[in-house]
Amino acid sequence: MDSDTLTGLLKKVAGKFPDQRALSVSGKFDLTHARLQELIERAASRLVSGAGIVPGDVVALTFPNAVEFVIMFMAVIRARATAAPLNAAYTAEEFEFYLSDSGSKLLITSHEGNAAAQAAASKLSIPHATAALSAADSDLSLSVANSDSVVDSVAELVNDPNDVSLFLHTSGTTSRPKGVPLTQLNLVSSVRNIRSVYKLSESDSTVIVLPLFHVHGLLAGLLSSLGAGGAVTLPAAGRFSASTFWGDMKKYNATWYTAVPTIHQIILDRHSSTPESYYPKLRFIRSCSASLAPVILSRLEEAFGAPVLEAYAMTEATHLMCSNPLPEDGPHKPGSVGKPVGQEMAILNEKGETQEPNNNGEVCIRGPNVTKGYKNNPEANKTAFEFGWFHTGDLGFLDSDGYLHLVGRIKELINRGGEKISPIEVDAVLISHPDVAQAVAFGVPDDKYGEEINSAVIPREGSNLTEEDVRAFCKKNLAAFKVPKKVFITDNLPKTATGKIQRRIVAQHFLNQTPSS
């Protein structure tokens, strides 16, 4: 059973496919599975003997999408410590919150450093180290460790399924992020689930388009590929670029990619304005982390000739909960996030009673991939794990085929005078307008109804879309009470660092603005 640890699984894979490509930085270098394992073991030894890291310590990592991050992340968990990846774009105040909340003992950055992170670490008296992979001898140096003195100091360390390996914060809809500890067993269970539903193997290859400090890019893109013996390419710039994406996909024989809807739309827009001479033959395209409008799904399939599989995931489930299957395993239903993968799922009402098919309730899960609880947050844990299930906070229903359909976040449902409106449903209508590139519906306070529905829309390039056009289109396609009262025509929408559009943030952004038509 891969010893029920992610480190055990990756070691086994390296033994099975030692000479196959595991990790590339586009146009720079490639590492095989065996070489990657060697680098991880050596870096783990340096953490133990040079930086004094002991099992249970938390190590914060802030990097672009770089090979150093991959090696150091794996080295930290190999040393039985906990990796806490952080967004390099945080302010010093944000770094201070995350470093202190996680109880970090060491901050590791790229060779270039990160001024805001270092300022926060210094204030909290947390030591800082840099990691750099030299191209010449492809060895990784850690600034706190003398490479000559490193013996095999992790050889005796045995990873345990209960080791807390990853510490992330929820991006959730609450104002204060909650800390989510994830174990080796959580990680390996999720990797197995992702690998099985998409049939990932050593012949698969992908290009990472999402940040690796987030569970989607880290688990679905990177770790599941490595855990299947497949290959991963990191863009040379250390982040997604629409102009290099297809070049990398072709050069490295990619067979699939996973992204958030925002990135799929950027890739589609690029295809419309600057199409490639040809596109690689992909097994599938995956979409996750926010709902994908059915019209975008069909445009992607048409443009790139591959099935688009929508999935459903969250940090507390170590990413994957549900996915639409590959074509040979069953239909994929546009508008549905598919069937549960590797875990139990139930739709419960407020009394904890299981709902019949096609009846709405809260989506609840349990399984080996689910966190055992939030860190130092007994109040949140009491609510989240009521009735012996983890409560996702999402409202949805399972259809008679067992496919999950999401109605929205329970907290994001718009209650207009007692009529409950799913913003996801309104999004899908807005985005189906031929002149709309991106759209989001959200609730705002209203004196008469308690809440009213508004929306923000980014028009397609070259269109003269007005607020009235959008409202007229909605009136044809939605019940009157679901038609947005105001439509903001804009050229950008506020997003989180992972490319997610959070309705709460969008609502705040537009709250005191007047729509322009």
Summarize the model shown.
The chain has 14 helices and 25 strands.
Please estimate the helix content: 25-40%
What's the N-to-C terminus distance?
Answer: 60 Å
Assign an overall shape: globular
Number of H/I helices: 14
How do the strands of the widest beta sheet line up side by side? 4-3-5-6-7
Strands, total number: 25
- Stretches where pLDDT is under 50 for at least 5 consecutive residues are none
Structural class: alpha/beta
Q: What summary fits the major beta sheet? A: 5 strands, mixed
Strand content: 25-35%
Offer a few descriptive terms.
single chain, 30% helix, five-stranded mixed beta sheet, 517 residues
Structure in words:
The protein is an alpha/beta fold and 517 residues long. It is 30% helix and 25% strand. The strands form 7 sheets. The protein has a 5-stranded mixed beta sheet. Strands 12-13-14-15-16 form a 5-stranded mixed beta sheet. Strands 2-1-11-10 form a 4-stranded mixed beta sheet, with helices on both faces. The mean pLDDT is 92.
